[in-house]
Predict the 3D structure of the following.
Amino acid sequence: MSCSLDHLDIDGVRRRLIEQAIDGSPRAYLAPLDKGLSGATVWRARWELPASGAVSELHVFKIGATHKLQREHDAIRSIASVIDNKVVTPILVSNGDLSLLRQPFSGGDPGSVDSLKDYLRRCEDAKKAVEIIQKLYRQRLRNWHYAEDRPRAMRRESLGVALDWWVSRTDLDVVVGRLGRRAIDDAIQRRHAISLDEVAKGVIEMLGVVGDYRMGPVHGDLHSQNVLVDASEAVHLIDFGWCSERWIAIDYLMLECSLKYVVAPRLANLTDLLEMNGKIEQASVDLSDDGNWDDAILYGMDLEKVARCVMEIRSAALDHQAVVDIDQYERGLAALTYGLLSMPAGINHPYMIHSLATAIAARTGRLT
């Protein structure tokens, strides 16, 4: 007996994939989740178990291009589930160019699970926010990135090669053209004494610099919506489509970018956002001693949370030897900031360009 999905706006191919994924159940319960940047559609799903009539545990169905979901399935099976026993290898159902990935829902009750982005935005205590970042890196991801009995190989290559997946598709001219080239150029020249052309040249030169990069298993897309926090404040990982053996710093750089360019309030003053960058870079600054941080500027408490979380990310990156030193981290951060400029709405592009201009100006000796 086929399952009725008439109440959902789903075409025939996707209906057949769902019917296969629920093992011939006569009844399924699906609710749409956010659509990923990969173009996949994502559903929360339960179904009636044919043998008993009971309802299944909660699952997530991801429907998308076969080559992408096959890559994710294989990466989970060969990398993620091998080193992280909390990651379950999903079931892949294919129908030509389209496939469905079926995996258990992470975090138990969906009503009590937040993305890290939402958790941090709601959290009113910067110390509690930092504790979640500590759980993520010091506990959940420790075996991914650091293990005394498994020394990580070093690879000598250019920064552009080390981050090729993330920087190869960005076109700075397209991004600034959409924002307004003259306005952006005038703004960064006034603030950073550097032109857009000089920024572009500096990025190319930076990507060509050769260095030694520590390799290992990475999640690869560790932004603030791919980390979940449940009611007990346990941390869960989702979406392993970019999981691979890469430069392990990407799992630190990506989350720093996400916190600064997505989680930080978009309406915060640009001057305050760039001042936050400066505080982060001054590792000796102790924000807990700065009593005016939370009320002297707009969104001060939110900026403090982001800054303190980023400081913990950087500390973990150094402790787990994801980078050889903080200079390598900051070069990687500038390169990834450039790479993520290609991301669509929802990311703070003006702040990203100013951050990139700050980094390039500092490295060319033009920062005033």
In short: The chain has a mean pLDDT of 89.
